[in-house]
C-alpha cells in the first residue's frame, strides 16, 4: 500500500517554538499509529514563519512565490493534515489564517485534519472549539474529535501529571487521525443539476402534465 502523506503546518513565531514542538510530537504519534496499522508515512512539515513575506505577497498580488507554491502543494496533495497555531487574542494567529486563505477553497474537502494549539494559559484552550474547529468545518475538512492544546505547564518534567495528560491527548488525537487517514476516501458526489428558480415556479404554476 502507498504510504500516507502527512502534511504538518506549524505557525510558531519563535525559534525554538512550543508550537513546532507540539506539531512534531503529534506527527511522531500519528506515524507510530499508522505503522502499527501496517502503513508507512511520509511527513512534510511547513513552517509558516519562513513563508510570512510570501504569504503576504500572495494576498496582495494573487501570485504565490515558488516556496509558497510548494507549501500549498504539500498541503493540497496530503492524505492528512496536522495544523498547529499559537493562540493570540483568543484565536489562531493571523499568519495561520492567512495561509489557509491562500489555499484553494476545495483543497481540504474531506481531508482528515488534526487541529492543535499552544498558548500562555490553559484558558486559551477554548480557541480550539470556537475558532479552529469552525475554520476547518467551513473548509469542509474531516476534523478529528480530539483537538490538542498545550499550555506552558503541560511541558513539565517527565512523570509529571500534566505532562502525562498532554501525552494522553496527543496519543488519542493521533489515533483518530491515523484511523481517518488510513480509511478509504469516498468518491466525491456528482454535482446535481441546478434548476433555475423561475423554472421551478413555472412548474408549480402549471402542475404535472
UniProtKB/TrEMBL annotation:
Residue intervals of the NADPH-dependent FMN reductase-like domain: 5-155
Source species taxonomy: Bacteria, Bacillati, Actinomycetota, Actinomycetes, Kitasatosporales
Keyword Flavoprotein assigned: yes
PANTHER family the record matches: FMN REDUCTASE (NADPH)
The protein's name in its UniProt record: FMN reductase
Organism: Streptomyces cirratus
Sorted UniProt keywords: Flavoprotein, FMN, Oxidoreductase
InterPro entries, A to Z: CE1759_FMN_reduct, Flavoprotein-like_sf, FMN_Rdtase-like_dom, NAD(P)H-dep_FMN_reductase
Pfam families named in the record: FMN_red
Flavoprotein is among the record's keywords: yes
